[in-house]
Amino acid sequence: MDIYTSLKNIVGEDNVSNNPEELFIYSRDPGAQHPRRVDYVVMPETTGEVQKVVMLANEKKIPITPLGGGFTLSALVVPNRGGIVLDMKKMDKIIEVNETNRYALIEAGVSQAALQAYLKKHHPHLQHSTPEAPPTVTVVGNALIQGHGHISPRYGVNSDMVNGMEVVLPTGEICTTGSASVSPYWFTRGPLPDLAGLFIGWFGTTGVVTKLSMKLYPKPAYREVLAFQTDDIDSIADAIVDVTQLDLLEDYFLIMQEKPDWMNHMFHIIIVSGHSEEELEFKKSAFKGLFNKFKGGDKVKFVDDLHPALEKRFLDVPPLAALAADFRKGGGFEYTGAILPIDKVPEAWRKGIDISRKYGMVCSYVHQVLTCHSVMFGFNYSFNRADEQDIEITRKALEESNRLTLELGGMIWKGEVAAQKLTMEKMDPNTAQLIQKVKKLLDPNGIMNPGNWEA
Ligand SMILES: Cc1cc2nc3c(=O)[nH]c(=O)nc-3n(C[C@H](O)[C@H](O)[C@H](O)COP(=O)(O)OP(=O)(O)OC[C@H]3O[C@@H](n4cnc5c(N)ncnc54)[C@H](O)[C@@H]3O)c2cc1C
Q: How many angstroms does the Cα of residue 145 sit away from the middle of ligand 1?
């Protein structure tokens, strides 16, 4: 029997395609990477169907690439060696929200917007950590790439919030991680050997996650944006340390954009929240006191009259910080998301401006401070999707930013294949070998998203 017919027998005719018009959209993503070939797209509706598709692929040695929303921008869902794209969007059930133990158990295709809307309607005092990405992206895809949301500066990155998962292994076994492997509750990851680490950060190379339990958090009734502005780049690290030392913020961005002129400063944007007006007022006065004391004195200016457009953007959940980026004609946008140690931010800032200038781009920065330990530093580039030369320039700028990230002692977040290779080259060789061994153990036929995390 041919592969198409076998897939049709598993998921039904409506949920499989090898039609070139339908495959076109799966052969590329919105970022700057090259399009690549796809042979089949399959939309399973149950874990049982995922299992059968994976078993078929394993037997026939056909590559499988799991797809959530497809918005990493670094082509992580575009197959490197053809085969099946497993589009998870039809597995979109919110299975359980446990109010008391504060978690949501969801299927892999549940989008950020769907979970947010569901919580707003049925559990208005709970929230999940919502990334600023387009609303159609999946909660699972985001957690698996160690993404970050609007409460990450307070509670940690979104992969830290995973309690457990149901996973179809590349050889077809269905396996559960965390407390759900021994209990009816999906409420905690340990105390057990932490098997979540076999699937988080692997870009779909170790299995297909079909369900995931995500921690929920109390949702405050009041939020407000505070901002201060400075041109003193050398003060950034000290300012981040002082601001986070207060331990009172919900979200924290650094932004700068060369145009329009009023944005050509470094803005620290701090979002504070409270369950009562008194709590909010207390936090605001603590921050205002801190701003007045900052080193550098008159180099730092508290912004009383933040532009209303900017204020609204940051008050939204998720905040629309990336809109600070300079979007050019043609709508292309990609960034090196560098997870940097806080003390390297000033150097990254200066060298990032140099890279933008070198490639003729307007510099626009959006960085999010992640807890009090690191910064997601976005080297942003926009390009014209209709202009191949412009896209090539963007790839070069990305490569330079990736190299800079590693030189600074940082980590490239959700890197494209070329960035993964740079990381592997710099990695302790025994660690790089361990990664290959784990992949081989779980996926002996190398069917899962091949080309990623390869030495
Ligand atoms: C304007 C803009 C702003 C953004 N802002 C943020 C932000 O604030 N925070 C942030 O974290 N990200 C941000 N992003 C990046 C990205 O869009 C998000 O991280 C997004 O949540 C990724 O989820 P996805 O569903 O698109 O994942 P996908 O791109 O579909 O998948 C990501 C990876 O996970 C794998 N995968 C997906 N589903 C499964 C599964 N079920 N089983 C196994 N593997 C799987 C895929 O193979 C791929 O390797 C932004 C992007 C844009 C365009």
A: 6
The residue among 185, 201, 218 that closes a domain is: 218
* Ligand 1 near 200 CB (within 6 A): no
- pLDDT tens-digit map of 6-49: 999 999 999 999 999 999 999 999 999 999 999 999 999 999 99
| Domain range enclosing 278 | 222-322
Find out whether the beta carbon of 65 lies less than 6 Å from any atom of ligand 1.
Answer: yes
Tokens 């910064």 map to which residue? 375
The pLDDT of residue 321 is above 80: no
Q: Is residue 98 part of a domain?
A: yes
Q: How far is the CA of 156 from the centre of ligand 1 (A)?
A: 17
Q: Please work out whether the CB of residue 352 comes within 6 Å of at least one atom of ligand 1.
A: no
131 alpha carbon – ligand 1 mean position (Å)? 9
Our answer on whether the CB atom of 50 is closer than 6 Å to any ligand 1 atom is: no
Give the residue whose CA is nearest to atom 29 of ligand 1.
70
Q: Tell me how many domains the chain contains.
A: 4
137 Cβ below 6 A of ligand 1? yes
Whether ligand 1 lies within 6 angstroms of the CB of 77 is answered as yes
Tell me if 451 is assigned to some domain: no
Contact, 17 vs 26, CB < 8 A? no
The enclosing domain of 398 has a CATH number of 3.40.462.10
Residue nearest to atom 10 of ligand 1 (CA): 147
For residue 447, report the phi and psi dihedrals to the nearest 5 degrees.
-90, -20
Looking at 71, 89, 107, which one is the last position of a domain?
89
Q: Is the CB of 129 within 6 Å of ligand 1?
A: no
pTM of the predicted protein model = 0.97
pLDDT at 70 over 90: yes
Q: Are strands 126-127 and 103-107 parallel, antiparallel or unpaired?
A: unpaired
CA of 141 to the centre of ligand 1 (A): 5
Assess whether 286 and 228 both reside in one domain: yes
Can you point out the beta strands (E) in 131-207? 162-168, 174-176
Q: Is 76 in the pocket of ligand 1 (CB under 6 A)?
A: yes
Which of 307-321, 383-397, 404-418 is predicted least confidently? 307-321
Which segments within 342-452 are labelled E, that is strand?
Answer: 364-370, 374-384, 411-413
- The reply to whether 241 falls in a domain is yes
Q: Within a domain: residue 49?
A: yes
| 193: pLDDT strictly greater than 60 | yes
Q: Which amino acid is at 175?
A: C
The CATH number of residue 305's host domain is 3.30.70
Query: Beta strand 84-87 with 64-67: parallel, antiparallel or unpaired?
Result: parallel
If DSSP codes are grouped into helix, strand and coil, which group holds residue 339? strand
Q: How many CB atoms lie within 10 A of CB 213?
A: 28
